[in-house]
Amino acid sequence: MPDGDRAGIACRALSKSWPGGVQAVAVFDADFDAGRTTALIGPSGCGKSTLLRLIAGLEQPDDGQVRIGGLDPARQRRQGTISVAFQDPSLLPWLSAAQNVALARKLARQPADPGKLAHLLRLVGLEGFAATRPAALSGGMRQRAAIARALVTAPQVLLLDEPFGAVDELTRRQLAQDLPPLWQTQGTTALLVTHSLAEAVLLADRILVLSPRPARIVADIAVPLPHPRRPDLTDSPAFRRIEAQARAALSLPAGAT
């Protein structure tokens, strides 16, 4: 993707509270460089998913603003430049797996691309299930379809909330190896919410560690490891150092992930 088509993200003094006075995000400031992948990690319920929804324009902040490529997120969504994959795959039950994935291109006003569709379904392990409706797919397979749907439009901004959380460990490792090059080579700006420190180090160029609710940045960790990153990288001293740094910021014991 040419540099001029890339979109960075700027969050300025974001705050968000839910009914009952629960403050999810408080005065959050961050810039996410175009074409880079950032992992957001933090305690459960700290506001990571709320941040993604604010950045996507699916929720409005009480204060502050988000700009993506200098534009309001809602405008970017209308232009089809933002893709989101949340923990709930939210597939349309009357469409097949392939039709659910292809629908994203139609909604983004992009022409059909059967070759890319078939390639993505193969990568996520759904090649033999293209004609299958969601009710007949396992939870992990539905999640894989949702990931393919998020990638099929070649978005400028990709927001992923625990994208591999519903799949088995073997599939999770394979997807973590096969899928990131798709958005990295396109120059996509990606934000990844994960509870796995190893996954954060393996996939991201940068890790933001968030505090308990309301979400504030307590550590900003660079991940200067070369791409592409193979799974055996997890055994390297450099990988272990970064993982230990993130664990210390979370104040987790050595055996925790």
TrEMBL record:
Does the keyword field hold ATP-binding? yes
Q: Which Gene3D superfamilies match?
A: P-loop containing nucleotide triphosphate hydrolases
> Signal sequence: where?
none
What organism is the protein native to? Paracoccus denitrificans (strain Pd 1222)
> What does the UniProt keyword field contain?
ATP-binding, Nucleotide-binding, Transport
Domain (ABC transporter): give its ranges: 9-237
A matching Pfam family: ABC_tran
Q: Which family does it belong to?
A: Belongs to the ABC transporter superfamily.
Q: Mind telling me which PANTHER family this protein's record contains? A: ABC TRANSPORTER ATP-BINDING PROTEIN (PTHR42788:SF20), TAURINE IMPORT ATP-BINDING PROTEIN-RELATED (PTHR42788)
Q: Name one GO molecular function term.
A: ATP hydrolysis activity
User: What PROSITE patterns does the entry give?
Assistant: ABC_TRANSPORTER_1, ABC_TRANSPORTER_2
Name recorded for this polypeptide: ABC transporter related protein
Q: Which SUPFAM superfamilies has this protein been placed in?
A: P-loop containing nucleoside triphosphate hydrolases
- InterPro entries linked to this entry: AAA+_ATPase, ABC_transporter-like_ATP-bd, ABC_transporter-like_CS, ABC_transporter_ATP-bind, P-loop_NTPase
